[in-house]
Design a protein that fits this description.
The structure holds 2 protein chains of 2 kinds.
Chain A (H helix, E strand, L loop, with lengths): L4 E3 L5 H28 L6 H25 L8 H17 L5 H26 L3 H20 L9 H8 L7 H19 L1 H11 L1 H6 L4 H27 L11 H10 L8 E3 H20 L7 H25 L7
Chain B lengths: L2 H7 L3 H17 L6 H26 L7 H17 L5 H26 L3 H20 L9 H8 L1 E2 L2 E2 L3 H16 L1 H11 L1 H6 L4 H27 L11 H10 L11 H20 L5 H27 L1
Antiparallel strand pairs in B: 1-2
Helix pairs in contact in B: 2-13, 3-8, 3-11, 3-12, 3-13, 4-5, 4-6, 4-11, 5-6, 5-11, 7-11, 8-9, 9-11, 12-13, 12-14
Classes of the chains: A mainly alpha, B mainly alpha.
Chain lengths: 334, 317
Amino acid sequence: MTNAEVRADRPGPQAWLVEQSNLLGLAAIIVLLWMAFTARAPGFVTPFNLFAISRSVAIDIVIGYSTMVVLATGGMNLAIGSIGVCSVMLAGYLMQKLGLPVPLAFAAGLALGALLGFANGTAIVRSGVNSFIITLASASLFMGGMLILTKAAIYNGVPPAIAAFGRMRWGFISPLLLIALATGAALLILFRFTALGREILASGANARAAELSGVPVGRVVVTVHTLSGLLAAGAGLMLMTRLGAAMPSIGEDWLLPSFVAPVLGGTLLAGGFVSIIGTILGALLVATIRSGLLIVQVGNFWLQLFLGLILLFAVMVDRYRGVYAERRGLGRSS
Amino acid sequence: MNVAQRLLAKEWSALAAAILAGFVVLSLLSPEFLTEFNLYVMLRSFCVVLVVAFAQMLALGVGQLNLSIGALGGLVAIAAGGVMDKLGFPIALAVGLGLLIGAAGGLANGLLTVRTGINGFIITLATASVFTGVNLGVTESIPFYNLPAAFVAFGTERFFAIPYLLAPPIAVGAALAFFLARTVPGRYLLAVGGNPQAAELSGLPRDRMIVLAHVLSGLLAAVGAILAVAQLGSAQPTIGADWLIISFAAPIIGGAALTGGHISVAATSLAVVLIVLIQNGMVLAKVDPYWVQFLLGALILVAVGLNRLRALHARSE
């Protein structure tokens, strides 16, 4: 199999086909949209616009991973935006105020993201409370804490190398996209070939069964939240290279895209199934629509409406596929 | 159990104690706190938050989440404000239209949730984006300022410390308490939230109750939005943008269970009082407004922790 679909139980050939149909459908929609936008506005496929799309899709992909890894266990993380901005502001502070070198500051930012994610996971497991409510509260806590400490200041005196990296072009794509794809490859290996990946999916498919068969579900939940925090920090730092500054407004509008990409890609909300290629395609669809609407001058104001309609459409198609799969006796791990 | 123990066992006892302590501390520390004007300011900021909290509370009552309350509120705000400003609709008609949009949005949420069987979280996340999208697309972020004088006056006038704006939320709260405690649909609603399987087996119309809860939630979001327009004196497209956290904070601090079936009008109201008190205290102490956000998050975590402890304690007895 060459696909990126990973699930807890071994799928039969029919189930495999159903899952592929989702990815193929998504890819077909993206191709159609690219054709439509190119026909309407030739500016859509200029090297400059392709570069802009590659840069924004790279960030959306990593934001999507951040939610995807938590969805794998059937949990949620509403604090992704807050964690991302905390990491960015820490890195910005370390570089601008303390003059730390870039790699060290970025490492500190990533470490903070992982730490905040770890705190989320620990709070969820220790309290036994729904991850939705814990991360909703911690999002407010992290964001408030960041604003109190930074007084909402923008750090725009960070080394110019950061902005230079954000502007760097390899052909017509941004190296950021390669980072996103490499991260995807690492996640693919995690879910497909490691015991931890299997344990994560097993916990999401059926937590009780997993617990009974010796999977340390609590530790798994803490691990995915730590990973989610790390990825959120990564997305934030990638966005910082694009903006060339550490801004406290980063992450404000991440909630919707963080769910759109994985859910469009077929990752189950109930847990037990993730699709990495699906998340990449989902993010690409969002980026395509965003860029296309700008270029055909529909304007940014309607973008939100389209995103919502697409998400609605996608979940309904997904539901239909689920019903279809059940009728065929394929069953999903939900 | 003696009286003290029985009081402690009540879920809102900790809330009432916290409010009392906050009141005493603030009135001792700040001479401005007990002035008529400050009380008026506090009561006025209480109004919108209370109705918004009720909107989420009803969704939580049937075990649902409604992420679209703020977005729907924003849409209602600009619709009601827009028809008054641009089309010269009379106040009653504009308010009626706003309530209708709220109920229709809630109906859409409910039907989509029930018909597709998809988690209400993701449905309302999507519809929230749709509502906000329509709002931004129509207004292009430009507010409606030209509202009838009588409408704006309702948002600012007061009887000593009591704002007129307080009347609708109080009426809504009383109606809601009556509805949940004394009417058949209200009892059904909570039964469905408490144990969907059992409710289904005893023949309760589970799906219809979920739709009803969403409709009422949308309607209350609309009430909150109209109150917010009156309070601000203009229909801002950003109304509702910051409702998400507060809508969950109040019912949960008030002890609502996310699993459904367990909500309380009184406890939610007390939680809103506590939140408003904290906000007011921050303003009087001239602290960074960011502290409110921080404390709200901390307060939710403390509340869920306390509820958890209480549940464990109850089980061990």
